[in-house]
Design brief:
Blueprint lengths: L1 E3 L2 E3 L3 E7 L10 E4 L4 E3 L8 E2 L1 E4 L2 E8 L6 E9 L2 E12 L10
Parallel strand pairs: 2-10
Antiparallel strand pairs: 1-3, 3-8, 4-6, 4-9, 5-8, 7-8, 9-10
């Protein structure tokens, strides 16, 4: 299983691509969990969210990273019914960018 991109900053909203091998992703049934502080496709933070499935081995998800999410590495878990695939250290939450100082 792979995740691209493999990182995002606290406070960002963006789409990730998920690719599996020998998986059976199904629209409306395949879910992903990216860990604490991350919402997947509108699900509550830290809970599984439904993916948009393109094929049995390819899907996308919209991630929303809480601005207060702790920076660090997360595991990613995908599930379709009883089939589960996990990837340790698959995604990294980066600290938010420091605000720019106003011009002097």
């Amino acid at each position: 299983m792979s995740v691209k991109p493999t990182s995002g900053r606290a406070g960002e909203v963006f789409t990730v691509a998920l690719t599996g091998a020998n998986t059976g992703f199904l629209q409306g049934q395949t879910m992903a969990n990216f860990g604490p502080g991350i919402s997947v496709s509108g699900a509550p933070e830290g809970q599984p969210g439904v993916l948009t499935v393109a094929s049995p081995t390819s899907a996308t998800a919209t991630l929303t990273i809480d601005p207060a999410a702790a920076a660090g590495v997360r595991g990613v878990t995908l599930s379709t019914g009883a089939q589960t695939a996990s990837l340790t250290n698959a995604f990294t939450v980066l600290a938010p960018l420091a605000p720019m100082a106003p011009p002097v």
